[in-house]
Amino acid sequence: MAEADITRNVLMYFVLPLWLAAGFADWLCHRASNIATTAGPKESAIHLLMFVEMAVPVMAALHFEINAGILYLMLFCFLAHEATALWDVYSPSTSARSHRSSSTCTAI
Fold first, then answer.
1. Do 108 and 78 form a contact (C-beta atoms < 8 A)?
2. Could you give the CA distance from residue 64 to residue 40 in angstroms, rounded to a whole number?
3. Span 57-90, pLDDT tens digits
4. Are 57 and 72 a contacting pair, CB within 8 Å?
5. What global pTM score does this model have?
6. How far apart are CA 43 and CA 105, in angstroms?
7. What proportion of the chain, given as a percentage, has pLDDT over 90?
8. Sign of the CA dihedral 21, 10, 78, 86?
9. How far apart are CA 14 and CA 88, in angstroms?
10. Buried b (16+ CB within 10 A) or exposed e, 12-51
């Protein structure tokens, strides 16, 4: 099996399902905390930003050959996503809303 095939298989059959499972767990936590009434437009904007930060590398992986540039793009977007998630988790301390500990764990 070629190196490109191994990389593609790891991304498609390990990384992507793991990421989707973490996103689903985060959604379940937000649903349990009744986020529709406890958060406002800022929360929605933060989640849209995190979605875009992960959509860019996924779309790049689907449309371009996986090479060092795409992997660097994925790493950069992942780090940006993590920074946004940390900002999301720690910003409630200065606002009226609060995160449950289980939601905090899945957001990171």
1. no
2. 37
3. 989 988 998 899 999 999 999 999 999 989 888 8
4. no
5. 0.65
6. 17
7. 33
8. positive
9. 26
10. eeeeeeeeeeebeebeebbeebebeeebeeebeebbeebe
